[in-house]
Amino acid sequence: MILKKIILLLLCMASLGTHAQTPEFTIEIRDHLFFPSTLVVPANTKIKLIVINKDSTPEEFESYELNREKVIMGGAKAVIFIGPLKPGDYPFFGEFNPKTAQGLIRAQP
DSSP label at 15? Predict the structure, then answer.
């Protein structure tokens, strides 16, 4: 019985450690622009992308290459998990302001 509890405890600790190791990156939306407009992330690694919309109007984070789209209301934030990505460039844009809200995620080894 004690051995089962120890194994269960170790499994719980291992799952917490794995979740905590996901690198986090933040992008802000201000004046219908993404900051930073180019975000460098590690290749072959799953990442947690936090998108904070500082504008009062909604914006949609969209990327065909990343296969992601997410509406972020004004003054709100969203969490988007992406990857692992092969080395390369992955463009994204704001669906509601596509002429100004443009950016790039660059996955580097």
Answer: H
